[in-house]
Hints:
This protein is an alpha+beta fold. The protein is built from three helices and six strands, in the order βααβββαββ.
Amino acid sequence: MTTDNPFESKTVTLTPPFHFTVRIVLRNINEEDSKDNRIYTALHKEMEELNFKRTIENGSLRLPDAEYFISYNTNCEDVADYAKNAIMNLFEYFTRYKAIIDNHYSILVTGRGTYLARNLEPTPPIN
């Protein structure tokens, strides 16, 4: 039985180029820059210029906010470095964050059966 339900689970065979999902969260951003999602709008533009997409299935399905998709013949480490380039470009415009950039972003890359996490916040201890 075939349905046209876009939420139906699909099995995808991964062959080069490999498919990666990237999640970027910007942290400790001041109110002025977060107003009207100004800084995320700039991030989306930077990611798009590096060929990261905010949709899948040939543009028919939109990813959740701050998630991106890219097909690339590489590994999670290279994709994370590539995404960090977009963040560095972003912080060229929002210069007040550049000096302490590692305090202002997290990246999670999944693909090729693995993941890579950079600058994620630790979970609080359980009492």
